[in-house]
Amino acid sequence: MEIAGRTIVVTGGGNGIGAALARRFAADGARGVVVADIDGDAASTVASEIDGLAVAVDVSDEVAVQALVSTTEDRFGPIDLFCSNAGIGPIGGIEMSNEAWQEIWNINLMAHIYAARAVLPSMLERGEGYLLQTSSAAGLLTNLGAAAYSVTKHAAVALAEWMAVTYGDQGINVSALCPQFVNTAMLDDPSADPAIAAWVRQGTIEPEEVADVVVAGLADERFLILPHPEIGEFFLRKATDYDRWLEGMRRLQRQIHEA
Ligand code: NAI
Predict the structure, then answer these.
(1) Atom 44, ligand 1: which residue's CA is nearest?
(2) Has residue 199 got a pLDDT over 90?
(3) Is the pLDDT of residue 51 over 80?
């Protein structure tokens, strides 16, 4: 899919990766870019820069996601590309409260389902449309210190995979964006283990670099979009010898804490 002339929604578009995507889509000549975010002020700031439309929305509220789609269609016509990108990344293991697990589940997984339910009928009727879901390298591998994040990002990849198989013959493209660490506010969680946070910071790329890789991935209509190409290699190693990969991850965890 080429970006020029397209109507595109980006959730979580007020900051970080979503804001970089929105700016890049506008620069590449999209017809309309809708910047959707729970932080309405952030959405407005980005939208005003790119002559887009800001919508304040909580993506874990299905009715609000349906309204986002209607608002977009009223303003720009049918949606060509829906980037379901908003996400949260709380640090913590299985001890996290049930409420916290439910919240991340609603945002990192259910929001993708709400988006797909809202846009797919029109896309299927037209025989074309593109769903981009931001998952994470944690959806293919695992994220040290973040159980719920890893689990929900795996679920997001599984959903994207299922939709790619189910709707691919009907003109629908699906991609799963799986970056490793990107220099955004998400990495500033003060509750993060300091050793892991320092290790994470060594390997970050900028959101604009992610946007470059996304545009190339969309042009190729590639399912897995990997801004850090080595993640594809790690994924292969995991599939080839799971136990060896697990031992490698445990060693990495030990090394980070001993450093
Ligand atoms: P960010 O924190 O800079 O941006 C996330 C945006 O989502 C914020 O503007 C926030 O207001 C919005 N948001 C949060 N909850 C929302 C909700 N319920 N409804 C609507 N908007 C909501 O973080 P970043 O890094 O740009 O994250 C974007 C996506 O990329 C997330 O899905 C994240 O999990 C994923 N990701 C981030 C990585 C990183 O290292 N920063 C690595 C891999 C994936």
Answers:
(1) 136
(2) no
(3) yes
Residues 178, 15: Cα–Cα separation, whole Å: 17
Nearest atom in ligand 1 to 183's CA: 41
Residue 150 Cβ < 6 Å to ligand 1: no
Q: Show Cβ contacts of residue 187 under 8 Å, excluding neighbours closer than 6 positions.
A: 181, 197, 200, 201, 204
- Cα 212 to averaged position of ligand 1 atoms, centre (Å): 18
Average model confidence (pLDDT) across the chain: 97
- Residue spans of the domains in the chain: they are 7-230
Residues involved in catalysis: 149
Q: What is the pTM of this model?
A: 0.97
Superfamily of domain 7-230: NAD(P)-binding Rossmann-like Domain (3.40.50.720)
Question: Is 37 a pocket residue for ligand 1 (Cβ < 6 Å)?
Answer: yes
∠ at Cα 146 (38, 234), nearest 5°? 110
For the CA of 15, the closest atom of ligand 1 is: 9
Residues 145-192 have pLDDT tens digits of 999 999 999 999 999 999 999 999 999 999 999 999 999 999 988 888
